[in-house]
Request: fold
Amino acid sequence: MKRILLLCALFLAACTGKPSLDDATLSERTLNLEEFFEGETVAYGQFQDVFGTVRRRFEVQIEGTWDGTDLTLVEDFLYEDGSTERRVWTLTKTGPETWMGTAPGVIGKAFGEERGDTFNWRYTIDLPVPDGTLRVTFDDWMWLLTEDRLLNRAYMKKFGVDIGEVIIMFERPE
Reply:
């Protein structure tokens, strides 16, 4: 019976609506990743499972450099349990609104598109977890709320099934 309830819950979670780049924009702002992330940024976030239970919280210190083609993001994670992680992304601007990226653990390449105040980023990664790694797919959405704040909601899947979400608030120092 528990397995049936679990399968039903996973099915319902998979049916929930997700953002689209075709959604109406709610502001006149334009997100330019290379401008937002150049220099220092701090982020605060958490992972919650498909049932809504918060499983992990973290803070991220980010140093971004832009050379006109590539945006390099050095992300230093500090998890609430005291563990740390460093991830270094190299994002290449492939068009006026498109990006391709790599980072250790990313399988293949990540691809993203900016549209107005929104950015969508998709990739598969071997994500470090306390007891090893977990291969997951991210459907990562970012919205520029103000010139100094960016909201990120990332949907995570394993074997095509929703397993949770990561919510992050990025802030640029004033």
Summary: The two ends are 53 Å apart (CA to CA). The helical segments are 2-14, 33-36. The beta strands are 39-49, 54-66, 70-79, 84-93, 98-102, 106-115, 118-129, 132-146, 149-158, 161-171. Confidence is low (pLDDT under 50) at residues 5-10.
